[in-house]
Amino acid sequence: ARAERAGAAGQGSGGRSGVRARREQAGGGSARIPAARRGLVVLFGVVAALLAAVGGRLWYLQVMTGVSSASAAAQDQARTVIVPSVRGRILDDVGTPLVSNHTALVVSVNRVLVAQQADGGISVLHRLAKLLHMNYQTLQQKIRLCAPGVSQPCWQGSPYQPIPVDQQASDAVALQIMESQREFPGVTAQVQPVINYAQPYSTDAAQMLGYLQPITPQEVAQRHLPETGFSGVDLVGQAGLEYEYDRQLHGTAGQQVLSVNAAGAVTAIHHQTPAVPGDTLVTSLNAQLQQDTQNALAQAIARAQAEGNVDATTGAAVVMTTHGRVLAMASYPTYNPAVWTGGLSTRQFRNIFGTRRGEPILNRATQGEYAPGSTWKVTSTAAAMAHGFSAAGPYSCPGAVTVAGHVFNNWTASNLGPMSLHQALVMSCDTVFYQIAYQMWLRDNPHADLTANPHAPVQQMQKMELAFGFGRDTGIDLPEESPGTVPTRQWLYYYWKQYKSYWCRHGRQYGGYIQQIEYDNCQSGFVWTPGQAVNASIGQGYVTVTPLQLARAYAAIANGGTLYSPRIGEALLSPSGKVAARIRPPVAGHLPVPRSMLSYIKAALVDVVTQGTAAGAFSGFPLGKLQIAAKTGTAEVAGGQATSVFASFAPAGNPEYVVVVMIPKSGEGADVSAPCARQIWDSIYGLEGHRAAFPGGRAPTQLPGMSADGAIIAPAGYARSK
Questions:
Q1: Are 461 and 437 in contact (CB under 8 A)?
Q2: Which of 312, 289, 294, 292 is nearest to 302 (CA)?
Q3: Which of 64, 331, 482, 601 is most solvent-facing, going by the fewest CB within 10 Å?
Q4: Does this model's pTM top 0.70?
Q5: What are the pLDDT digits (tens) for 325-377?
Q6: pLDDT, tens digit, 9 for 90 and up, residues 432-449
């Protein structure tokens, strides 16, 4: 107990001592403040300063800039939404759809958003590929950007817009993508207009129709179009009719200006401009005739191959009116343009553009350049008569003639005796035209042949060939066309300049046959020689034409001398069904040939079918019901089979239609192209058991109509192809 009391007393004494010590520190100015307390004072000061700064900033924002901040906030809530338009349709002459539209669920990938994922979007794309039942590599190819060194397929559009990867997605797939955005960030599924290619007609006319591809930033700027972010509205025509009439088919995108709150919900619609659908293009093509023409061409090539001409793998045919309207245009091989929907795979790209499959992307009716053979003799006949040569002759037709030391053979070794120009066309006598061409060469300013001069005058016979529309574009409403070749002196000069260095490098004066030719060309390739004039007179040598050029020239003979610029488009219908514009083939020129001379040539072409080189091909054909005027052509090719050519028009008394067929490396014109043309004539008129494309042989003169709901109505008396 004493110990406890003593301890307590000690504590009391010590406590009082501590109190005294604290009092001494507080009372005397000479005592110092501890370091901990100084830290608290500094902290309180910093906090007070921060509060003052925040308060000042709030006062500035609310009082000084309140009006501008409210305006900025209002602007941030405004959103502009682009409403895509529906692209116009492409129809045949009776309203059969060749290219149309339908709405579909389109799955698109936004590269920018996908790339922001931690792994660069690899896992997202793998999940998407699995969902779409698509190979991952194929999906990657669809969304990679086109750039130098990047081969097709690739995305040609803006890298900031969604890239369509599946344009026929199922409802289940679209729903899964929309409900699982955490699994598919940057992937969307939206209802959009999708191009639909009607089969089999779109495949039969693929090269004419063309195709669509994403619009590039450069094209957006050039055409003053908005970047919509919708694949459907951002597609533009890149070939064929889709390119030629893109502005009319494209339509106009609409806009909506919306108010959106902080949660992203639409609170109001401030302004909206509805989308305007594109016009509908009505063509002069007939779907049934197009299909029949394509089939006839394919069958002719198959027959040529079966007979041993294995290199006969391509060809073209043209059917048009004598006033320039294209009714059918076949190019073989062809392809299904639906492959462009959603992007091409590497394999598809190679099949369409590669030479291994015959480059089906090419429209051989407008781009193929072939020697016309004896179908060219109509221009040589016109040139001869225009320069004083007698139509009656007589002209000898031996099996061969010698011109300037060179022997030129006729197609037959027999001597057919003396004949008129009429008979020379009917029997297709080469040696008659050789002799006429040489005589014209002798009197046609021969001194101009010996000078390398880009301004040398055009030869007399070549003036007539140019007047028939050869050597230049026809001006058809398609962007892809080749001019062919008329070997004028000027053309020879530039041809020599282009290849002179090659000829001089490889030519040998005493070398092999080809080397000697190259040596001669090096020295005088610009000279218009007698041999060149002779070969050109029968549509060989340097002469080349497109099937369309040949069809246009024969149409001019048939119609009395008017040369038209052909047209496939016939009219544009507005979305309401009214005729927005009529499209008529413009006149491109007139043949410098009197009507009497054209009548003389037409009479000879009639006899070609009844008793000349085409008589065998048309044996048994009801010529009493449909009289056909025509010319066969067989253009020889060194080291290979000849190009088979047939040009015709009918009815001969009052011509309405022209049919031209050209099949390279297949054989003689009478054996390959003429039977093909016979099938096409049967397709038009239905005279040998085929259903006539035109009832009574008359193409429709009225346009198809359109009901209030957009349904197409065929002209009276005609039915749409199914």
A1: yes
A2: 312
A3: 64
A4: yes
A5: 999 999 999 999 988 876 677 788 888 998 888 999 999 999 999 999 999 99
A6: 999 999 999 999 998 999
429 falls in which pLDDT band (50, 70, 90)?
very high
Measured between alpha carbons, how far is residue 15 from residues 7, 11, 20 in Å?
A: 12, 6, 9
Q: Burial letters for 231-251: b for 16+ Cβ neighbours within 10 Å, e otherwise?
A: bbbbbbbbbbbbbbbbebbbb
Q: Which two tokens stand for residue 119?
A: 């792994």
Q: Round to whole Å and give the CA distance between 170 and 720.
A: 31
Helix, strand, coil percentages, rounded to 5, for the chain: 40, 20, 40
Under 8 Å between Cβ of 258 and 81: yes
Q: Which residues of 44-63 are buried (b: 16+ CB within 10 A; e: fewer)?
A: eeeeeeeeeeeeeeeeeeee
What is d(CA 351, CA 348) in angstroms, rounded to the nearest whole number? 5
Mean pLDDT value of segment 123-141: 91
Q: Contact 104/98 with Cβ under 8 angstroms?
A: no
- List, in order, residues 6 or more apart from 424 with CB less than 8 Å away: 377, 381, 393, 395, 397, 432, 433
Q: Return the CA Rg of the chain.
A: 40
Q: What are the C-alpha distances in Å from 354 to residues 113, 317, 333, 351?
A: 35, 22, 12, 5
Question: For residue 546, what pLDDT is reported?
Answer: 98
CA gap 537, 424 in Å, rounded: 13
